[in-house]
Amino acid sequence: MFPHLFQGLDVFEFHCETCELAKHTCVSFPISNKRSSHPFHLIHSDIWGPSTVPNVFGVRWFVSLIDDCTRVTWIFFFKQKSDVNIVIPTFHSMVQNQFGVKIKSFRTDNARDYFNQILSPYFQSQGILHDSSYVNTPLQNGVAERKNGHLLNTTRALPFQGNVPKSYWGEVVLTATYMINRIPSQSFYPHFKTSNGLTPRVFGCTAFFHVHSQHRDKLDSRVIKCVFLGYSSTQKGYKCYNPSARKFYISADVIFIENKPFFPKSSLQGEISMMEDSPCESFEPLDLPHVSTHGDEEPESSEPITPESPNFTTKPQSSPVLASVTRNFPQFPKMYLREKVILEQKQVQESNSDPENEITVRSDPPLHTQPGETSTDSIDNLD
């Protein structure tokens, strides 16, 4: 309101210790569009893991190496996190031999696995500058973090489409990297003439691997049913896996059924409770106590009903049990069903001339009613 009061004053003079203690925030990172002009001048790296489920080979970790110029990615697996000390020198030797270029800078986060008695002397001996982010600041290693996020998003999508179990996550990561590296982008247009020339296939589909004549008999099957798990990095062929034999097969002589996943859909999806399928089949029969028809005295000839699934077999009773007597009797839903069976039993016994014959009352379906009949009491009891 009165700007003339602040003329000639510096803004930094209004900063005090109390304001810093109460309002201090992190510095915002500016958008950086800088990119290396030559491949392998700068390599970004990040370690992912451990996985809760080990791969089929027992690995739980992988390290991603991304070229800053082309964004081409290499993935290396290892069982222990300390094995990164072997992976990085091996990768540098491959780059020098295949492309004739030396890595100039290496950028990672502040993980201790990059700073040890093996990698630090190696970087110094090779003249490689090792840049790292400071503590709790993954934003400074944003290229590797975003690439890992892209890889994991694709890795989650592929198994869902083909019903592939989690134990094959390593092959899924390699397949996702294979496809992402061959997708054209603003900075990189891959040359398909130098690729292996294999036609992309649906991950997790059913594949039939051809068995050559020297490995089979004349009456044996000519193929092995496998699951398609990606592409080989060292051979020109598809990578197929036979779970029963626990073997990988690599060949170009493979027939695919891409609309048929090898693994069936998980039974956990859309599972229906047993109580919804059969609400009464899993109930145990109750041992009902004797019911007295005259006060607390028990009838002289009273025999308990012996349940024999699925039929109840009883002998003629001299005195029927009244349905209205409920004193000192537990209120179970099946009480009324049992009494109804006895009443129906009495009507059949009166029409039977030979008292020595046994009467069998069938309880099919579980509500003790004949097919096509509906019992109102039974429906109420279920509710």
UniProtKB/TrEMBL annotation:
Location of the Integrase catalytic domain: 35-208
SUPFAM superfamilies documented for this protein: Ribonuclease H-like
A molecular function (GO) term: nucleic acid binding
Record GO biological process: DNA integration
Pfam families: SH3_retrovirus
Region (Disordered): 283-324, 346-383
Chain intervals with Polar residues compositional bias: 311-324, 371-383
PANTHER family in UniProt: REVERSE TRANSCRIPTASE TY1_COPIA-TYPE DOMAIN-CONTAINING PROTEIN, TRANSPOSASE, PUTATIVE-RELATED
Protein name per its UniProtKB record: Integrase catalytic domain-containing protein
Organism this protein belongs to: Vitis rotundifolia (Muscadine grape)
High-level lineage: Eukaryota, Viridiplantae, Streptophyta, Embryophyta, Tracheophyta
